[in-house]
Amino acid sequence: ASITDPDEVGALLRAIEGFTGSFVTRTALRLAPLVFVRPGELRHAEWLEFDLSRAEWRIPAAKMKMGEQHIVPLSRQSIDILKEIQPLTGQGRYVFPGERSRTRPMSENTVNAALRRMGYSKHEMTGHGFRSTASTLLHELGYTHAVIERQLAHGERNKVSASYNFADYLPERRVMMQEWATYLDELKSQSGVHAVNAD
What we know:
There is one protein chain. By secondary structure, the protein is mostly helical. The chain has 8 helices and 3 strands. Strands 1-2-3 form a 3-stranded antiparallel sheet. The protein is globular.
């Protein structure tokens, strides 16, 4: 389940900004739409995987569904979010540690539970849904299918090209990820008045 209408995406982003649960959960919710990795990759994110000076998050192959290292170019917005949480969790292993133990990542239910608290049913939006949201809107915005697919870390169906270079299209992906973050900011800043029923 995912939200793909731009007005509704803007409303979701504003709801995330107003989330009153834990700071760690709210930060994960804020980062999720910007990086659109799989939920397991997000909650298992480790500080040593990030190079903020190079604006990169390199996820090891062992953590990836397709068994290939994955590079996530970080937008300025993503870096700002990471710098906000760094003083709180930066001394530990995980960017988003669990509430009960700092030595373990947050629960796989945390993001979905937060979405439910915000009023989104499991049929409307899930943590995995941020990937569908990004894929749909990036295609609608006219970005190249191959660039979007590589950033989603979708494996090649063709075995000949299955051992792809994880840096494929990296310059284009850097541009896309920054423009995507800026686009989300624009959606978030819209008043949403036209999305509210007149009655």
